[in-house]
Structure to design on (208 residues):
DNA sequence: TCGTGACATCGCGATATTACGATTTAGCGC
DNA sequence: GCGCTAAATCGTAATATCGCGATGTCACGA
């Protein structure tokens, strides 16, 4: 369980430096607050469609937001059939919290 | 001692989402690692000139970096005579760490 | 295999950020 | 006052990000 590199820190901070992406990460704390879906949200994550609906952006924008969060390792994507499910990567988020005060 | 608003979180993350600004905040943890100056660095902060020299950027760029960090409340500026001294705002940094996991 | 729905990627214009040199503002010593 | 230095601000070109519609890819069901 290593620490986050400087590059990883920067890309995580960059990803969080946008109001909608920051909000999405907060929403994902309670996956069951989203509409029901075939797979349980608290296991496999929330379907992109539901994230898009709550964020009120186009499909492509929602997809790109999640790709940015994923590149920063802040979320994990699980694809099941046609659906992409996103859930928080609590490990990275915890490391980020630890990095503040230690590295930062 | 309130918490950070969403806007404050976003602007703090945005400010940290740049490798040089992130590095500067780390450097400021040990003000005495900079060249000596009239005022003690661990009391009043580090002179902009020394930050500029270590970051290896132009004077105007260094000034703007610090202004960005200051707008995000991550550093405090103390002007003494002609010199602007910058030190970490540990209070905001601590709140930011707490916000990760709570809000984020 | 053909159509449909879910998602990713492309291409684009609009906007924001970056980093710089030049200029301005202001403090200091003479 | 004058010159010198420190720092903020201005103006700029280059670059990156934002958000969208259009297109491409893939899974599913009829």
């Amino acid at each position: 369980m290593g620490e986050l590199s400087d590059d990883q820190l920067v890309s995580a901070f960059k990803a969080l430096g946008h109001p909608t992406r920051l909000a999405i990460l907060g929403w994902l704390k309670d996956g069951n607050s989203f509409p029901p879906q075939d797979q349980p949200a608290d296991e496999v994550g929330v379907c992109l469609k539901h994230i898009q609906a709550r964020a009120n952006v186009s499909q492509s924008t929602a997809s790109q937001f999640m790709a940015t969060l994923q590149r920063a390792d802040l979320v994990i994507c699980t694809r099941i059939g046609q659906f992409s499910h996103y859930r928080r990567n609590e490990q990275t988020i915890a490391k980020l919290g630890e990095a503040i005060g230690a590295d930062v």
Notes: Residues 50 and 90 of chain A are 21 Å apart (CA to CA). Helices of chain A lie at 6-16, 19-27, 41-44, 48-55, 59-71, 90-102. The interface with chain B takes residues 6-7, 9-11, 13-19, 22-23, 25-26, 93-94, 96-97, 100-101, 103-104 of chain A (CB under 8 Å). The first strand of chain A starts at residue 46 and ends at 47.
